[in-house]
# Entry
Amino acid sequence: MASATSALELIRAGLTELAACDIDAYGTAGLGDECAQILRATGELHLEAARRLARFEALGGPAADDAPSLPAWLAHRCRLRPWEAKQLATSATRLHLLGDTRAAFESGEIEFGDVATIAEGVDKAADTMDFDPMAPDTTSGWSPERIAETAQPILLEAAGEVTPGQLRKVAARVALTLDGDRAERRRRQIERQSFLDIGQTMDGVGVLRGDVGAADFAILEKAVDAFAPRPGPGRSQWEDRPGHRRLKGLVAACEVALKVAGRHGYHERGGAPVRVHLIATPATVDPGVPATQAPPGRTEYGSVISATQIREMIRRHQALVNTIHVGADGRVADRFTTNGQPLNWGRTRRLFTPAQRDVYVAVYAGCAAEGCDRPPAWADIDHRTAWTDGGRTDLDNGQPLCRWHNLGKEKGRRPYSRRRRTDKQGRQPEDPDH
Ligand SMILES: [Zn+2]
# Structure
């Protein structure tokens, strides 16, 4: 009867011998060959661990050791990184379905990475299949066994022909195509749940996070790549990092889009051409004040931007600088903009002008309704005294209101109430953006 203790002692003895080899005397061919063999042995050890982990999990081992799941146990007890733990746990859990895959590994046709990818593909397909437990046909058809039976030959054949990276894509494709109907439902679910979060940390790092449906992802992927700067001589190492170039690609694509927005029918609220608005005090842009000592500015969305960055953006782009003078009473003292546009129209026009709007965006931090944090960028300019009651289109008689508060005012709703986060149907107020 084989004993794991003595087997592990043998492995350790072998490792000691390997460590004692004088590798300085090797040529590259020998080194490469040995590395491949050592990694092959690593894969064999992984598979042996996976076999035991499957049994460990079936017996409730992770829970007995106070871990909520096998990946959690692997992370805590064996210090595996999250993706390593997930990969090994998935291989362990699905190993019993993958007889042919194990045989292919044992005969040396594929490596442990391929085994893990095939296990992951089968696992994903199984997940996708029972995504909708309410479906009438849940019990019929696609059991994990049937999935493995169908997917395994396809993936094993592909493993012989493509790179490990391509094999992952084949596995993803198989997971999505085994059962077209279910997969289509899953795709629609992904589409409904897709989102983009945009935020800023305390020290000014902009943070993007999103889940994207495959069709939208295809467009993003292309734009990021098409606009990314090419690596090359004269660029520093950090500039050539793929992640950095991808980000610059996305930003460049956005810059181009903003430049031609008008031609495609996109305008600011109020009708002006789309521009990035930066709001700052005179000291922020005063060349007499060192940038490092100047106060930061903000965007019309309230994101903070340093004086150095504001100065650089003014230099780099075709900037239009508008100065607004605010009196001691907090009221805007100007009667005209810097380039001569009137700021008070009285009864001669009904809608507030883009020039007036710029002033409100600068002097208000957000929607004027109490307690509302919608940024001024999303606001309509509202007559405090209604136009129909004789109100004037003057700076003094205007205020930015988000679409929701503006509609509420028109409907005679109280300007601010505790119910403002949900209406009677319990729905979220709609983003004025949509
Ligand atoms: Zn509001």
Observations:
- The CA atoms of residues 285 and 311 lie 6 Å apart.
- The longest strand covers residues 195-200.
- The pocket of zinc ion is lined by residues 367, 369, 372, 374, 401-402, 404-405 (CB under 6 Å).
- The domain at 335-434 is CATH 1.10.30 (DNA Binding (I), subunit A).
